[in-house]
Design a protein that fits this description.
single chain; 599 residues; alpha+beta; four-stranded antiparallel beta sheet
C-alpha cells in the first residue's frame, strides 16, 4: 500500500455523539434532528460546516475483525448518529457555540444523551475532499485509544496511517479525520451537560469515509484493516457505523437549508468572467414573428413561474403560497389541484396524469392526479436541493432536472448572477430513486426538455445566454455541446419538444451592466449586492418567446409588450395558442400561436 501522504487542510471542530430518546419513535427523532434542530444550528454565524450522520440501527459494525481490537459494537454502547461541526474562528466560534444555550436545550427534545468532543486546531484534517459529489455510501469510524498509549503516536497513526491509507483506495471519494483533545477536569466542569459518557466508553478519534458505493466502501475498510501495521498497538476499539442518511446543513459558512422565511442576503463571492458582446438583436423590442395578445387570464395564484399543458389542452401552473391550479380553456374554469406548501417553479406533465414540480423550498416533487404530493428528491448526496428549477422525464421514468444554484435561495437568485460564479447543476433521477450529478458549475441552468428521440437533453443556461445539449444515448453519449449561443436575452423555461420544435420563454433582453459586472472589482459588486431591492438595476418590461428546432435553429422570434404582463418565465403551446407565465406578473397571458416554418 502507498505510504504517500496527501496534501490536507486542517480545521477546528466539534463532534457530538447522539443517542435518541427511546420514548419517541426513531423516525420522529431523526425528522426533528434533521429539521427544526438542524435549522437552529445551521443559522449560527460562526459555524463553517455542519453535517449530520444518521446511523443504521441493525448492524454490529463495518470494520473487519482485527486481532486484539474490539470491532463489533456492543448494544449498550451503540449511538444513533453524529453531529459534526467545523468552526470558522479559533476564538469566537467555541464561545458562540457554547453561549447559545438554545441549542443545548433543544437537544432534550429528541436526545436521551449526547457526548461532545472538541478537536484542537490541526487535530482535524480533510485528507480527501469529496465536495459532496456522487458519494453513495458513507460510514463514520469511531476509535478508542489504547490505554497508556502515546497521544502523539496515536495522533500520527490516525491521520498519517489509517486516514491516509483509506484515501488511496480507488473507490474512496472523501476522508476526514479528527483526534479529540483529552477531557481534563476543568472542561468536564464547564461543559458537564455536554459530556456525560463513562470513561471506558469514550472515543478519542473519528474518521468519516465517503465512497462511490457500499461495495467500494467495504473493500477500502478491508484493505486498510489487512495491511495497516500497528492497529492493535494504538487502538483498543474501532467501531465503524454505517450511515443511513447524511444531512449537510452548512458549507463554508453558508447555510444550505432553503429559505423558508425572510433572512439576510448571503455573502457574495465574486469571480472574474468575461462575456461576449450581445448581438444587435438584444436592443430591439420587437421580433420577426407576429405578436398578437388575446387576454390575460385572471387567476387565484400569484406570480406563476411556469405553465404546462396536458393532452386534453388543460393548462397547469403554480406560484406564491404553494398552490397549483388546472385551467380548462373550454369551460374557462380554474380548479385547485394541490398545495406543495412551498414555492413551485418548473412543472412537467406526465402521461400518467401526474405533475413533476420543482419546488424552490421542498425539492423535486410529484403531484398525483388525486392531489397527493410526494417528495422524489429532497437532498442530493446530503445537500438539500436549494433551487430546484425545471424537470423533464423520459418514457422509462428517468427524470432529468436542473438546480439553478446551490449557493442562493430563490428569493436571492440575483446574487448568483452578480457573483458570476457557476454554481448550477444538471441532475438525473433513475427509476430506482438513485440521483446523479451529471454536470456541475453551470451558469444558472433552467428550462429543460428531451429531444424527440430521447437521445439528448436540451437545457437553458440563463446566465450564459445559451442553450446546451447533453447526449444521453447513442454514439455521442456523454458529449456536451452548445445548441444556440450568445442569445439576445435571458432564456428561462423550455416547453416540451413537440412537432420538431420547442418554445423558450425569454425573460428580458441582455443587460450590459450585468455583463460588465463579471470584470468589475469584487468589492464594488459586494456594495451593489448590499443595495435594497428597489435600488437594484431594473429589467426591461417586455413579453418574449422564441421557438427552436432540435438543431438550434430559430423558427420563431415573437416579442412585444402588454400593459399588465411582462417578464415571461414559462411558455407552452396548446389549442392553437401560447400560454405564458411570469414570476414577476400575476395571471397567465394568452397569445395567438404563429405559424412555425419547417426547416
Amino acid at each position: 500500500m502507498s505510504k504517500q501522504i496527501l496534501n490536507h487542510k486542517t480545521f477546528l471542530g466539534i463532534t457530538t455523539l447522539n443517542r435518541l430518546r427511546t420514548d419517541l419513535s426513531r423516525d420522529r427523532c431523526f425528522s426533528y434532528w434533521g429539521g427544526a434542530h438542524a435549522d437552529l444550528v445551521a443559522r449560527n454565524g460562526f459555524i463553517c460546516d455542519y453535517n449530520q450522520y444518521h446511523f443504521k440501527d441493525d448492524e454490529e459494525g463495518l470494520w473487519p475483525l482485527t486481532p486484539e481490537v474490539v470491532t463489533s459494537i456492543p448494544t449498550d454502547e451503540r449511538i444513533d448518529g453524529v453531529s459534526e461541526i467545523t468552526l470558522g474562528s479559533l476564538v469566537k466560534s467555541p464561545i458562540s457555540i457554547f453561549s447559545d444555550i438554545r441549542i443545548f436545550k433543544d437537544k432534550a427534545k429528541v436526545f436521551s444523551r449526547t457526548t461532545l468532543n472538541i478537536t484542537a486546531y490541526g487535530g482535524g484534517r480533510i485528507i480527501k475532499a469529496g465536495n459532496h459529489r456522487n458519494i453513495n455510501a458513507r460510514c463514520v469510524v469511531l476509535i478508542r485509544r489504547r490505554k497508556n498509549g502515546s497521544l502523539a503516536d496515536f495522533n500520527k497513526f490516525i491521520h498519517d496511517g489509517l486516514a491516509n491509507h483509506l484515501s488511496h483506495h480507488e473507490d474512496v471519494i472523501e476522508v476526514r479525520s479528527q483526534v479529540f483533545i483529552p477531557w481534563f477536569k476543568a472542561l468536564r466542569t464547564i461543559f458537564s451537560l455536554a459530556r456525560n459518557e463513562a470513561t471506558e466508553h469514550q472515543y478519542h478519534a473519528s474518521i468519516v469515509i465517503g465512497a462511490k458505493d457500499s461495495i467500494g466502501l467495504l473493500s477500502a475498510l478491508a484493505q486498510v484493516a489487512n495491511h495497516s501495521n500497528g492497529i492493535a498497538d494504538h487502538c483498543s476499539a474501532i467501531h465503524a457505523y454505517s450511515v443511513a442518511k447524511t444531512l449537510i446543513n452548512r458549507v463554508d459558512g453558508r447555510a444550505t437549508i432553503p429559505q423558508l422565511k425572510p433572512t439576510a442576503k448571503p455573502r457574495l463571492e465574486p469571480v472574474r468572467r468575461v462575456l461576449p458582446s450581445p448581438p444587435e438583436r438584444f436592443s430591439q423590442l420587437t421580433g420577426t414573428t407576429p405578436f398578437k395578445m388575446i387576454e390575460v387570464l385572471k387567476s387565484a395564484v400569484k406570480k406563476p413561474e411556469d405553465v404546462v399543458s396536458d393532452k386534453a389542452g388543460n393548462i397547469y401552473y403554480g406560484g406564491q403560497g404553494g398552490k397549483i391550479y388546472r385551467y380548462n380553456p373550454e369551460t374557462e374554469s380554474e380548479t385547485l389541484i394541490a398545495d406543495t406548501a412551498g414555492r413551485p417553479l418548473g412543472l412537467e406533465y406526465l402521461p400518467c396524469g401526474a405533475l413533476l414540480v420543482c419546488d424552490a423550498h421542498r425539492g423535486l416533487l410529484k403531484v398525483g392526479s388525486d392531489g397527493h404530493v410526494e417528495t422524489l428528491v429532497e437532498r442530493v448526496h446530503g445537500l438539500p436541493l436549494r433551487f430546484c428549477s425545471n424537470a423533464t422525464a423520459s418514457t422509462n421514468g428517468t427524470i432529468w432536472f436542473t438546480q439553478s444554484t446551490h449557493r442562493y435561495d430563490f428569493e436571492h437568485y440575483q446574487g448568483a448572477m452578480i457573483e458570476h460564479r457557476g454554481s448550477g447543476q444538471l441532475l438525473r433521477r433513475d427509476p430506482d430513486g438513485q440521483v446523479h450529478v451529471l454536470l456541475d458549475g453551470l451558469h444558472f441552468p433552467n428550462g429543460i426538455t428531451l429531444d424527440a428521440s430521447e437521445q439528448s437533453v436540451i437545457f437553458a443556461e440563463t446566465d450564459a445566454y445559451r442553450l446546451r445539449r447533453l447526449w444521453i444515448q447513442g454514439p455521442k453519449t456523454g458529449q456536451l455541446e452548445i445548441l444556440a449561443d450568445n442569445l439576445p436575452g435571458f432564456p428561462d423555461n423550455i416547453s416540451r419538444m413537440q412537432n420538431g420544435y420547442f418554445w423558450v420563454a425569454m425573460v428580458t433582453p441582455r443587460n450590459k451592466s450585468l455583463d460588465r459586472m463579471g470584470t468589475m472589482p469584487g468589492f464594488l459588486r459586494k456594495l451593489i449586492w448590499c443595495l435594497p431591492k428597489f435600488m437594484m438595476p431594473k429589467t426591461v418590461r417586455t413579453v418574449w418567446a422564441m421557438a427552436f428546432n432540435e438543431h438550434g435553429e430559430i423558427l420563431a422570434d415573437m416579442q412585444g409588450s402588454m400593459d399588465n404582463f411582462f417578464a415571461a418565465t414559462g411558455v407552452v403551446e396548446t389549442n392553437g395558442r401560447l400560454y405564458m407565465a411570469s414570476v414577476e406578473a400575476d395571471g397567465i397571458a394568452v397569445l395567438d400561436t404563429p405559424s412555425i416554418p419547417k426547416l
